[in-house]
Amino acid sequence: MTHRIRSDELTQRVSAMFVAAGTSPERAHTVAANLVLANLSGHDSHGVGMAPRYVDAIAEGRLQPNASVRVQLDSGMLLGLDGQGGYGQVVGEQAMHLAFERVRQHGACIMALAHAHHLGRIGHFAEMAVAQGWVSLHFVSVFSRPVVAPYHGGDGRFGTNPCCIGIPLGSGDAVREPFVLDFATSRVAQGKMRVAHNEGRRVPEGYLIDEHGHPTTDPGVVVVPQSNGRYGALMTFGDHKGFGMAVACELLGGALTGAGTWHQEPDARRAVFNGMLTILIDPTRLGTQASFASEALAFVDWLRQSPPAPGTDGVLLAGEPERAARAARGQAGIDIDDTTWAELEGAAQRVHHVF
Ligand code: NAD
User: Fold this and answer.
1) What is the pLDDT of residue 45?
2) CATH architecture of 1-66+322-355
3) Are strands 208-209 and 215-216 parallel, antiparallel or unpaired?
4) Which residue puts its alpha carbon closest to atom 13 of ligand 1?
5) Domain 67-186+239-305: which topology?
6) pTM, full prediction
7) How far is the CA of 276 from the centre of ligand 1 (A)?
8) Residues near ligand 1 with C-beta < 6 Å?
9) In this structure, are residues 91 and 264 in contact, taking their beta carbons and an 8 Å threshold?
10) Residues 288, 281: Cα–Cα separation, whole Å
11) What is the CA(43)–ligand 1 centre distance, in A?
12) Domain 190-235, CATH homologous superfamily name and number
């Protein structure tokens, strides 16, 4: 069973729950709208299903519901920020706006954000930047239960460390929808394994190892503790290359930003922290704007001329699936599965609220 609900009503309900958990109404709305946009974009793993976890993280005293970003370093195009445990959706947007001021002054910004609670869908921040006509690169570390195994390693050692690249396409009259590549470095999202486990489904080979390090198709290995009390792990995408990318995200998003890296035994705490290194570039200030715009369009047009491979719908560019999902779900409404709905009701009860 699923609950179909319009995005504005879902935003209002989730927002009210965050207010009941001690969040200011403005912040609660920002976080709820961000989660609902993830659902609308087709990424239910980063949608309102995260809200119960946020409520628990507030109760743990680790998510600070009304915290704002603090400037640690402000030096030309370099910006060092501390999210102070605030909602990632709030401190992440604050951080991007501060970085935007530096781009306007200097043509580029390198922004390090440490200690943000879960930033959600990283593509949201790239979309903010490409709307200004800027290139936006993000390397993100996850500080939470380590669910992803190193290449040829036998257990989980780090998080799903996402990477995101936003690139505006064209300019002036010939502007197109942007390229927004936004992905976890695990082969598949942890949230998708929970859904598969709840539905009693197996998953394809190459996604998972069990608690002994053997390949498995049982998603339960990363959802419930196994025979030895430990979990299995997700594998990285692209074998050693995805593994290298995941490590780079931990080193840049974690170590370089001041957020820290994961090197401890797993625990059961619910809070999820992210560190994010962001690099913003204004192509007009780099002096290549005209050729950048025309060459980028020429290349993507060239890609689109590739004939559809048999059995496929043809070439898509990163960002297109999310925009298509927004159009469809914006019309039809968002489907929330029974388990997630019950979790939302349970979380609301814990803060003496009715979802
Ligand atoms: P995914 O595997 O669905 O990949 C998404 C990317 O691939 C998007 O850029 C999409 O436009 C592109 N894409 C999808 N199909 C395509 C096709 N046929 N052709 C061309 N491009 C295509 O996403 P994911 O790895 O499951 O990540 C989902 C979300 O989770 C992301 O928004 C990510 O930022 C987020 N995330 C957040 C955290 C965190 O801690 N904050 C951690 C991990 C992931």
Assistant:
1) 86
2) Orthogonal Bundle (1.10)
3) antiparallel
4) 318
5) Ribosomal Protein S8; Chain: A, domain 1 (3.30.1370)
6) 0.97
7) 16
8) 43, 46, 118-123, 142, 160, 162, 164, 180-184, 189, 274, 316, 318-319, 321-322
9) no
10) 11
11) 8
12) Hypothetical oxidoreductase yiak; domain 3 (3.30.60.50)
